[in-house]
Write a structure and sequence with these properties.
elongated, about 200 residues, mainly alpha, about 0% strand, single chain, Tetracycline Repressor, domain 2
């Protein structure tokens, strides 16, 4: 979290360092990214890093916060526009298009951080779990609108369907990342949407 007393210039400098550290961690992993790597990439001093983050733990926490805000902001905005099946399919199309633009690289920033950090640090695990819960809420809002519009049965188990969707996103992104093939994500999302449709009202 950015200290409230920080100047605009300080916030800008801190944000630049966090963004660069996030890019390095995506490329090398948290364990493979040192403070010296971040210093070299940002032309910052050791005193600046310690001023803004305290230590590497604080920097990694800032990266988690940054990646969560970026990913969840985009997902919340996209899912907020889902009101019918076609909207949901367009959301899936946008996810696949993103992976294609990245040529299958990167995967999910939150998922990648969770795989690396959830078993090593309880604070990181909690922050990442909170991020996934926020993503669940965004998916849940979209599914609730489908239900309220009569496209999903009133007794559909939304919590179960939310988990199905989120698992398809994460699994599809991981398979696309390792295969460099966006088709893997397409299959996962199409399968999840097909599962949702089995709970629809004919």
């Amino acid at each position: 979290m950015t200290p409230p007393s920080m100047t605009d210039q300080g916030r800008a400098t801190r944000g630049r360092i966090v963004a660069a550290a996030a890019a390095l961690i995506v490329e090398r992993g948290a364990a493979g990214t040192s403070l010296d790597d971040v210093r070299a990439a940002t032309d910052s001093s050791k005193s600046q890093l310690y001023h803004y983050f305290g230590d590497k733990h604080g920097l990694v926490q800032a990266v988690i916060d940054h990646q969560s805000a970026v990913v969840l902001g985009a997902q919340a905005q996209a899912l907020d526009g889902v009101c019918d099946w076609r909207d949901l399919e367009r959301w899936a199309d946008s996810m696949v298009a993103m992976v294609e633009r990245q040529r299958g690289r990167g995967g999910c920033p939150i998922g990648t951080l969770a795989a690396a950090l959830a078993d090593t640090d309880e604070q990181f695990r909690t922050a990442l779990n909170d991020a996934f819960n926020s993503w669940r809420e965004a998916i849940g809002g979209a599914l609730a609108r489908l239900r309220d519009s009569g496209l999903l049965a009133a007794d559909a188990d939304l919590e179960q369907l939310i988990t199905t969707m989120l698992a398809a996103i994460q699994g599809g992104l991981l398979l696309a990342k390792t295969s460099r093939d966006s088709t893997q994500l397409r299959i996962a999302l199409d399968g999840a949407i097909a599962q949702l449709r089995t709970h629809g009202i004919l």
